[in-house]
Amino acid sequence: MASSGRREYIPLEALNTNAEDNHEEAEEEQPHRKRRNLWHRIDTTSVLTVFLGFPLLLLAVTLLALFWHGSMKAIDGAEPEIYWVRVVNAGWATRLVTVCTASIRTVVAFQAGLVTAMVAGIVLETTGVPLLLGPFYSMLRAVKVAPSNLWTATNFQPHLSRFIYALVLIEVLVTAASQFLSTILLSDFANGTFTQRSNSTNVNVLNTTDNGLAGGWWYMPPAASWTFAELSGSFEDRSGFHDTGHTFRAFLPFEEEAQRTKLHRLRGPVPVMDHRVVCASPPLINLSLDATLESYVHLSGQIPTENLTYPLLIDPDSQPYINFTCELPTPNFWDNNTVGETSLCIPKSRLNWTVLIEDPLIQPDGFPEASTLFIVLDVVSTAAIIGTLGTPAVQTIRTDGPWTIVNNGSAHIETLRISACLTNLAMQTFTVGMNSTSDNLEPKTAWDQYTQSYNTEPSRLQLGVSSPGNTSSANHRGILTLDPRSQWEIFHPPADTLGVDPTPFFKAILIFPTFLNSYLLNYTYDPGVILSRKDPGIIFGNAHPSHVDLFQDTLITTASPALAVQALLTRIYQMAYYDQLVQLNSPVAAVTMFSLTAAIPVQWTGFVLGTVLIVIHSITVVVVLVRFVRSAEISFIGSYWQTVAQVVSKETRPILEEADRMDDGAVKGWAKREEVVESLGVRRVLRRRPGGRVTLGLVENGEENLI
C-alpha cells in the first residue's frame, strides 16, 4: 500500500497539546504521582475473585473432606454423623460432589483468568513483547481469558522468564485437569456398606409356654442358615473327653433375612442359650446288641453313676445306674470300615437321677430336664453287626479320646464307638448387646450333584465347626459378637404379658421319630434319631439328609462328637425358634443399628489428587499475585480503555492507520514489506514517555523500567 494513502492518526484519548508542548510541566508533575495499591489496580470482579474465591475453595474442599472422613468412619463400623447419614439416605452423595466440583471449577476459571491478566501485565512491564504482539498482551489484562490462550494465539515461550513460564504452564495444566475434577473425585466411589445411626425397634420376645415349638424338625430341612450372635470359650481336647467350652448364642428376633444380615448392633431382650457340649468316653456295663431284625438293631446297657470322672458329673444318690436302649442304623451294607452311620438317643428313664454340667446358664434346680445326656453311637463296622445273631453280650475293649470302643461279642471285632454328651437345653431371655463390623452371612446349603450330598461347608464355617478348635473371626463366619456376660441383664417382661419360659426348646429336641416307632413295635427304645447316609430313604426314623450331612461332615472333619452334636442341635433350635417367631405378638423396644449399602467414597486417592490440584492452583495464584504487586505498577486489570490507549504510540500509529481492514497476519506482512517499523522482533515494554503518557517503547540510553 502506498505511503500516500496514509491518514493522519488521531489519538483515542483527548489531546492535550499543552502537555505535549510543555515537557517540563509534565516532568514536573510526574514525581508527585502516587503509586496505586493492588486493590486500585484491579476491577471489582477481580477483587471478588480473590476475596471470595479462596474461601469458596476452602469451603468446598472442607465439605468434601468431611464427607470422605464420614465415609471412612462409617465403613470402619463407627457410628456416622447425622449430616453424613442424611446426605447418603437422600441420595445426595454424588450430587454433593457435583455441586462442590462445579463451584471449584468456577472459582478456578475466574482465578485462572485473573492469573492470565496479571501475567500479561508482568510481561508488558518487565521482559516486554515484540511490538506486533503488544495489542494482544495489552487486551489480556482486560478480558482475563484462560492461560491456554497465551499459547493458542502467539509464540508464547520467548516472552517470559523461566519462572513465570513455569507458573503459567502449571496453571494451564491444573486448569485443564480441573475440568475432570468431578470424575477424579467420583473414582473413589463404590458400593460401600456402613452402619446407620441407632434407632428404636420393636422386637418380639419368646414368652409362650405352649407346645408351639414341638414339631417334626428332624424330618425337615432348615429354611436357612440363620445368623446369630455368639460369645464363646475355647475348645478343649483333654484325655477322655472333648469340651466345646461355653458357647453362648443369641438368636436374632427378626423374621426377614435382610434385617438379620444387615444388623450391626442391637441392645435389647433376646433368647440366649449356652450351646456348650461336653462328650466323654462313658463306662459301660451289661451291654447287649440285638440284631435279630436288621431293620431294628438296638444296643442296651447301663452307665454306672458311681465314681464317674469329670465331666460325667451325674448324681448317684437315688439311682446307681443309667439304663439305655438305643436304636442303631440299619446295616444295609457289608462294610468293615463304616463311615456315616450314627445314632443319637437320650436315656428316658431319668426320674431318679440328674445330669450336672459345670456352670450352666440355667441351674438344674427346678428345671432338672434342662441338663440332658445324649448318647452318640457311631457304627464302625456294619459287617460285624450283620454277622451278629441273637442277642449276644458285647463289651468295651478300649477308649479312644471321647469314645468308648465296643466289639460285637462273638468275633471281637470293633463294632461301635460310643460317647456320652452333656448339654443344657434351657433358654433364658436377657437384655444383651451384640455388634458386627460387617454384614452377616446366611449361607445356603446347596445340593451337590457330584457327591450326592449337601454342601455343608459354608454352614459349618458359620457354626464354628469347620475344623477342630476353629479360630475364625466372627466377621469371617458372618455372625455377630455378644457383649461380655457381665453386661447382660435379666429381662423382666411387662406385667401384662406372659412370663418367659426357659424350656421352650425341650420338646423341639426331645420328640424324636423313634419315640413313636418304639411303641408301634412294642420296643422300649429310648427317644432317638438315626443319622445315616446309607440310603436313608428306606430307614424309618432317619433325620433329613441336610441334618445328616451337617452332623457327619462335622464329625469327619473335626473328629469331635461334641462339635457335631453342637452343630446339629443349634440348627434344630433355630428351626423351632424362627417357626415360632412369626406367631409371636409381644413387642418390646430394642435399640438397633442396621447397615446400608450405597455409593459412597471408599478410598482417599481421588480426593487427595483433587486436593493437590487445588493447592497447586492456589499457590500459583498467590505467587503470580505477589509478583504482580511487586513488578507491575502501570497495568490496570479489567480496564478496556487503558488496554487500547497504552498501545497507541508513534511506533504503532502507522500500523493502526492500515490495520482496520486487515487481520493479524496481513498486518504483520504489510509491516515487513513497508518497513514502517524497525526491529519488529525487538521487545517493547510499557514505559512513561516524557509527556506523561504510558505506551510501549524501547528502553533507551540505559533507562530502567519503572518497576
TrEMBL record:
Q: What are the alphabetically sorted keywords of the record?
A: Membrane, Transmembrane, Transmembrane helix
**Protein origin, superkingdom:** Eukaryota
Per its record, how is this protein called by name? Uncharacterized protein
What is the organism field in this record?
Answer: Aspergillus ibericus CBS 121593
Q: Where are the transmembrane segments?
A: 45-70, 82-102, 114-137, 163-187, 581-600, 606-629
